[in-house]
Q: What sequence folds into this?
């Protein structure tokens, strides 16, 4: 069982719930356990990647910890790929999908135990536009929602900002006539999601067979673009029954080229990230991720 001593935490001070009490309680427990803890704050989007790379190169930490939401974790992971030091998380975001994948609850004792003694697993990654992702890439409805989030509303109401942006995207018409090539086969859909693990947008099971510890991406193609169809999709997602819907095509994929409509919004690991055209593919590199002891996907 590893016993880690030196922790370098990269903290996004504006992430979601800004649970500073949780962060402080985790740091306190680490220090009580005899660990040395340094905390560095991000100053802008993308900064966590630079900070993580530099911290890994300095070589003083046994683990680099991303404290924030899934977007911050994604940025830290990008800085650590190919470096020996593992990544761990303190989930402080709005949705915290990776924490849900790891069955990690927002409890200081659980998080501190994981950081001190949790094993480091190799986790498969995906690539989007040449950059890694850990959880999902959404094209169409969720991309539009994430791009439309009002930062002030997000600060005030967290998930409420997503609900409001979702209602607006639904009212405008959620269909997007997407044309894509999945492993050489041309397909069409109104909404598309590529998922690396099991969960989507929170504790909602999209891919029942999804396993973040194994390489492999699943493509979900939602074929109907109507408002009622979207409600049906979201209810099925809430119940973990998307796979039962006759108008959703699900296939394992190695590479998907999303071609049209040009300019359609893309979200990656819960953050706005550009627009179509975009290529999503199976990554060839693995990330060393600290997981709770006894965790099994
Ligand atoms: N100091 C900063 N100022 C402004 N933006 C930042 C800063 N540090 C990081 N960011 C950006 O904040 C965005 C949101 O962060 P993050 O995803 O961690 O939180 P969240 O959106 O609340 O959580 P979740 O993804 O779990 O919903 C990221 O895209 C990141 O690039």
A:
């Amino acid at each position: 069982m590893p016993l880690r001593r030196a922790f370098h935490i990269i903290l996004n001070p504006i992430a979601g719930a800004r649970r500073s009490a949780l962060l402080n309680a985790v740091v306190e427990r680490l220090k009580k356990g005899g660990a040395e803890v340094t905390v560095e704050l991000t100053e802008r989007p993308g900064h966590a990647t630079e900070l993580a790379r530099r911290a890994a190169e300095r070589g003083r930490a046994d683990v680099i910890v991303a404290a924030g939401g899934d977007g911050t974790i994604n940025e830290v992971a990008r800085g650590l790929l190919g470096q020996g030091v593992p990544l761990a998380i303190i989930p402080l975001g709005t949705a915290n999908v990776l924490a849900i994948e790891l069955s990690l609850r927002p409890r200081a004792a659980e998080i501190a135990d994981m950081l001190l003694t949790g094993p480091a697993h190799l986790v498969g990654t995906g690539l989007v536009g040449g950059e890694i992702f850990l959880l999902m890439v959404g094209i169409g409805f969720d991309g539009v929602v994430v791009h439309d989030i009002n930062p002030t509303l997000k600060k005030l109401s967290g998930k409420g900002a997503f609900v409001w942006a979702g209602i607006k995207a639904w009212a405008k018409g959620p269909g997007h006539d997407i044309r894509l090539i999945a492993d050489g086969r041309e397909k069409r859909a109104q909404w598309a999601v590529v998922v690396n693990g099991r969960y989507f947008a929170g504790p909602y099971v999209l891919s029942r067979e999804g396993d973040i510890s194994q390489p492999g991406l699943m493509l979900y193609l939602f074929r109907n673009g109507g408002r009622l169809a979207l409600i049906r999709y979201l209810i099925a997602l809430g119940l973990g029954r998307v796979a039962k819907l006759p108008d959703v095509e699900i296939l394992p994929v190695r590479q998907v080229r999303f071609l049209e409509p040009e300019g359609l919004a893309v979200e990656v690991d819960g953050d706005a990230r550009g627009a179509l055209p975009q290529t999503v593919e199976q990554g060839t590199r693995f990330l060393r991720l600290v997981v709770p002891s006894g965790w099994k996907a």
About this structure: The longest strand covers residues 278-290. The two ends are 19 Å apart (CA to CA). The domain at 6-118 is CATH 3.40.50.10330 (Rossmann fold).
